[in-house]
TrEMBL record:
InterPro entries: Exonuc_VII_L, Exonuc_VII_lsu_C, OB-fold_nuc-bd_dom. This is Exodeoxyribonuclease 7 large subunit. NCBIfam families: xseA. It catalyses: Exonucleolytic cleavage in either 5'- to 3'- or 3'- to 5'-direction to yield nucleoside 5'-phosphates. GO terms for biological process: DNA catabolic process. GO terms for molecular function: exodeoxyribonuclease VII activity; nucleic acid binding. It is an enzyme of class 3 (hydrolase). Its main location: cytoplasm.
């Protein structure tokens, strides 16, 4: 066979035929394998490799389908994939176009865990945040009696706080019977708490293990029982990377059993050290206070004087004041005596008869001046009165009435100024220059 009598394809034509043949003959298939080389470019598509221990295939999950995948796709996840076999023509790569991705094996457990976590969180089962008593009076531990976790917890509690009253309630922590046993024990403890108020906190713990080993702590009913517990609950399951639904539902989570014991009780060594530091601070403060008070006492002692000295100073002061008072009294008496002597001499030198005559003459002059002033004042006031009377008479309405005018008044004494202010038949009073007239209005005239 030569090229002259055989159909010759281009590379693109060959890849196109291969793609159509694969898609037509294979159709949709289910494939299970492990994810690797998971890539998420900006386009939103997901590219990855699906492999087992002997082979691998390139896969593509386009954006329209990727948004329906509930669990995140990570390297190492075991998945079941539904898709169609195809070929990427530009590179000639054989590939699987994924339509749906489900967790397989361990992945199924993780998917169930995520679904239950979302459900419980939406119901508020992870909203517990009560503070645990510190230090607690009594610690109730739900754990395996033979596990390493309980030995670690008891060792840490004994080293940090030997005063803690610890009670172990042995329960299985793995397998199908573990969750019901822990639920039953937690319910019993809550019922006893009504009778024994000294029970302070419940610790649910176990050591590390696989996801299957820890699956009992992802039980929905256990998470609900922890959430509704009247006693505060601390959860410490597995290692630091292990997080179960019991951890979310508890009031507090510890990464490991030993860390739980450390968080539950104080460290006696740290407290002793703190007390020692406080004692030293108190001793230094007391010493400083004593030194300050001693210095103040010395200052006050230096300022303090004997009462006898104070009395002597007061006695001297009183004596000085008494002497000043005596001198002042003597000076005042001498001044008064001098003044009396001077007045007596002035009185003896005066002629009393002549003084009397002089005063009599002075009084007579004053009386004459007073009479003359009174007469002049009376004449002035009489003249002013006559002038005021004339002026008053000139402006008095009575003087006008004397010239023949009259004042008309109504029954209430109001003066009538216009004819319009009256009505026919109205009674009026006319005041004349001499006397009054009562009249009746017969008719009114306009201006």
């Amino acid at each position: 066979m030569t090229a002259s009598n055989t159909a010759i394809f281009s590379v693109s034509e060959l890849n196109l035929k291969a793609r159509k043949a694969l898609e037509r003959n294979m159709g949709e298939v289910w494939v299970e394998g492990e994810l690797s080389n998971v890539s998420r470019p900006a386009s939103g598509h997901i590219y990855f490799t699906l492999k087992d221990d002997r082979a691998q295939i390139r896969c593509a999950l386009f954006r329209q389908r990727a948004r329906f995948v509930a669990a995140p796709m990570r390297d190492g996840d075991q998945v079941k994939l539904r898709g169609r076999v195809s070929l990427f023509e530009p590179r000639g790569d054989y590939q699987l176009i994924a339509e749906a991705v489900q967790a397989a094996g361990l992945g199924e457990l993780l998917a169930a865990y995520e679904r239950l976590k979302v459900q419980l969180e939406s119901e508020g089962m992870f909203a517990n945040a009560r503070s645990l008593p510190f230090p607690p009076r009594k610690i109730l531990i739900l754990s395996s009696a033979s596990g390493a976790a309980i030995r670690d917890v008891l060792a840490v509690l004994a080293a940090r706080w030997p005063l803690a009253d610890v009670t172990l309630i042995p329960v299985p922590v793995q397998g199908a019977e573990a969750a019901p046993a822990m639920i039953s024990a937690l319910g019993l403890l809550n019922r006893q708490a009504r009778l024994d108020p000294d029970q302070d906190v419940v610790l649910i713990t176990r050591g590390g293990g696989s996801l299957e080993d820890l699956w009992a702590f992802n039980n929905e009913h256990l998470a609900r029982a922890i959430f509704h517990s009247r006693l505060p609950v601390m959860s410490a399951v597995g290692h630091e990377v292990d997080v179960t639904l019991a951890d979310f539902a508890a009031d507090m989570r510890a990464p490991t059993p030993s860390a739980a014991a450390e968080r539950l009780v104080p460290d006696q060594q740290a407290l002793k050290q703190q007390l020692s530091q406080l004692e030293n601070r108190l001793r230094r403060a007391m010493q400083a206070r004593l030194e300050r008070d001693s210095q103040r006492l010395d200052t006050l002692r230096a300022r303090l004087r004997h009462p006898g000295e104070q009395l002597d100073r007061q006695r001297q002061h009183v004596t000085a004041l008494y002497q000043r008072l005596q001198r002042a009294m003597q000076q005042s008496v001498q001044q008064q005596q001098t003044r009396v002597t001077q007045l007596s001499k002035r009185l003896a030198s005066q002629d009393m008869a002549r003084l009397h005559r002089a005063e009599q003459e002075r009084i007579s002059q004053l009386q004459r001046r007073l009479a003359s002033a009174m007469q002049r004042a009376l004449e002035v006031r009489q003249a002013r009165l006559s002038s005021a009377a004339r002026e008053l008479n000139a402006i008095s309405p009575l003087a006008v009435l004397g010239r023949g005018y009259a004042i008309a008044q109504d029954e209430k004494g109001h003066v009538i100024r216009r004819a319009e202010d009256t009505v026919p038949g109205q009674k009026l009073s006319l005041r004349l220059g001499e006397g009054r007239l009562n009249v009746e209005v017969k008719r009114r005239y306009k201006k």
